[in-house]
Write a structure and sequence with these properties.
With 459 residues, the chain is an alpha/beta fold. Helices cover 15% and strands 23% of the residues. The protein contains six helices and 30 strands.
């Protein structure tokens, strides 16, 4: 029975690697792709890089640092051939586009910083031959969520796995035997055993004073009830859905008003999130490190997005922030490396923090992070000020028709609410928004304009 379980576990890990990237897996790679570049790494090691970004390393000995030898920016996947005995210090440092790697049974050691800052590496299965993993070997591998270490005698440095170069946290899972479990427990890492069948994880429970959750066999997590969700902390009080790697879809039902802090942090296979109109706030870290989240629509009643709420959501490409959102906190869309546009329908939404609030990369000093996409909003508001202050490319939305105060492309009751809140002194309006709100064209926004907008919305 024990051998059967080990074989099943090994098969699962192998399956994960084969699905991690079509360009990487030997059984799916384009074997006819021509090698467009090649050369020598050392006297005994050679490399070739095909037009799919597949880097093949062959020969004998330890792989040295590759940055100065070959164009690592073109590397998308790596196959290391039998005969290579070690992955040397900083060998694959900053191979930021590499998403997968195959390591043969001849490799015995992975040295210091070997895969540091390989930000797109998601899963890795080490061979049983590996007996040591050096300091910072996988530091800064922000998307790494599953590591298989079959050799129970493998010596691992304490900080070998950590999400940031200066951050101790690691949200991935280590898979191995008892000594690996001991390492995981000592350093607060999640662990799955290869030795026996684990106790079944709960599939339903409570996540707020009046909220319940249930995870079905298809990977859909449903949150039901009314009110606010409980707050969580990944390393101290994690969310109750422990089998987060099984979650593919999230459905938050009507009645839920707040998504708690770090509620879905590290749900690395979550692809779609359905949010209700009753939702008012998404709190700090709620969806951070949901690497595969590609489909999410924010409800019109949403008011705030918390700090680091969607950091490291690499699957997000186009984001639209509704007109009702008044604040987006620091780091909310940090390290969203594939986000091409983020559109704010409220031109006066307050974007807090530094340039890392909207970025496709991260700088440890909190400033000087990059963003190559576009920030889109109406001209003259707080959003444009943020974009210009932090050198984010800005694109102006159309001025909008008269009455469309919040620029959501229609005149409706939401515009009336915005104007009434402006009149009560609870929010500000940009000059452009005041122009759209001034229906009687007397140069001042008054209750008369609010009534005219309401009438236009009803027509």
């Amino acid at each position: 029975m024990k051998n059967t379980i080990q074989k099943i576990a090994a098969a699962l890990c192998a399956a994960m690697l084969c699905t991690a990237g079509a360009a990487f897996c030997p059984c799916r790679a384009d074997l006819t792709a021509a090698a467009v570049e090649s050369g020598t790494v050392s006297e005994t090691i050679q490399w070739s890089l095909d037009d799919n970004g597949l880097l093949t390393i062959s020969g004998t000995g330890d792989i040295p640092r590759l940055n100065d030898i070959l164009p690592v920016e073109k590397v998308r996947s790596v196959i290391i051939k039998e005969g290579i005995t070690g992955i040397g210090t900083r060998a694959f440092l900053e191979c930021v586009f590499m998403n997968s790697v195959t390591i043969p049974e001849t490799v015995t050691h992975i040295d210091e910083s070997a895969f540091m800052l390989c930000k797109r590496l998601t899963e890795i299965a080490l061979p049983k031959s590996v007996v040591s993993i050096g300091s910072d070997a996988f530091a800064g591998c922000q998307m790494l969520h599953f590591v298989t270490i079959p050799n129970d005698k493998c010596e691992i440095e304490g900080n070998a796995f950590r999400e940031g170069v200066s951050a101790p946290a690691f949200y991935g899972t280590l898979c191995g035997h008892e000594n690996i479990r001991s390492y995981a427990e000592t350093y607060g890492r999640k662990f799955i055993s290869l030795d026996n069948t684990p106790e079944p994880l709960p599939t339903e429970g409570i996540c707020g004073e009046k909220l319940t959750w249930k995870l079905d066999q298809n990977g859909t997590l449903t949150i039901s009830g009314t009110g606010s969700m409980q707050d969580y902390l990944p390393d101290q009080e994690p969310s109750p859905w422990q089998n987060r790697q099984d979650i593919r879809r999230l459905k938050v039902e009507e009645g839920v008003t707040t998504i708690g802090r770090y509620a879905f942090c590290g749900c690395t296979r979550l692809e779609k999130a359905e949010l209700p109109e009753s939702l008012l706030s998404i709190d700090g870290g709620a969806f951070s490190s949901c690497y595969n989240l590609t489909d999410i629509a924010f409800p019109s009643g949403l008011k705030s997005i918390g700090y680091w709420a969607f950091s490291k959501c690499a699957g997000l490409t186009e984001v639209v922030i509704p007109s009702g959102v008044e604040t987006v906190d620091e780091g909310a869309f940090s390290q969203c490396m594939n986000m091409r546009t983020i559109t704010f329908l409220n031109a006066d939404c307050k974007i807090l923090g530094f340039d890392n609030t909207i970025s496709d990369d991260y700088n440890a000093d909190l400033i000087n992070s990059t963003y190559s996409g576009k920030v889109i909003s109406a001209e003259g508001g707080e959003v444009q000020k943020f974009a210009e202050n932090w050198q984010r490319p800005f694109e102006a939305l159309s001025a909008g028709e008269i009455g469309d105060v919040n620029l959501d492309q229609e005149v409706n009751v939401l515009d009336v609410i915005v104007v009434n809140r402006y009149l009560s002194g609870s929010r500000e309006l940009s000059d452009a928004a005041q122009t759209r709100a001034d229906l009687d064209k007397d140069g001042t926004v008054t209750s008369s304009d609010s009534l005219r907008i309401l009438k236009k919305a009803i027509e």
